[in-house]
Amino acid sequence: MPRQRSIALKLNGYTDLPLGKIATIVTYLEMRERPRLKRLPAQPGWALERLRDETARYRALFRSVGEDWLWFSRLHVTDAQLTATIGHPDVEAYALVIDGRDSGLLELDFRPEGECELAYFGVVPEAVGRGTGRRLMNEAVRRAFRRPIGRFFVHTCSLDHPNALPFYMRSGFTPYKRAIEVADDPRLRGALPLGAAPQVPVLGPLQTTKARQPVARPRKPIAKRPS
Question: What is the pLDDT of residues 54-63, one digit of tens each?
Answer without folding.
Answer: 999 999 999 9
